[in-house]
């Protein structure tokens, strides 16, 4: 039997303290869109989407099962790819009063070299915004 293979990442989960603050940050700062949905269990859940990507939100203390063994706000480190220049991102973030904690710096991503800037979301998760180097 051949070894099974993974094809793609469907979604990831962020555990957050304040869902409204998280949604506001990811929509207003990063350009994501909040989508509300109701799974078969009848609950109401929120996901952040951009392109074909999805980040499900779980509120700390009210996580959905099954969940990560130690689901904690502020423990994620996410790298987002962009086609917008980092100069424009830096101006955008400055206009919004969002501090850049590092960068631009050269990094290596899944598909090759990147130029990146780093910031934090409301829970302190590390957010990397990267442009592929050409």
From TrEMBL:
Transmembrane segments: none annotated. CDD domains: GLOD5 (cd07253). InterPro entries: Glyas_Bleomycin-R_OHBP_Dase (IPR029068), Glyas_Fos-R_dOase_dom (IPR004360), GlyoxalaseI/FosfomycinResist (IPR050383), VOC_core (IPR037523). It holds the Pfam family Glyoxalase. Residues 8-132 form the VOC domain. This is VOC domain-containing protein. It comes from Pseudaestuariivita atlantica. The lineage of its organism: Bacteria, Pseudomonadati, Pseudomonadota, Alphaproteobacteria, Rhodobacterales.
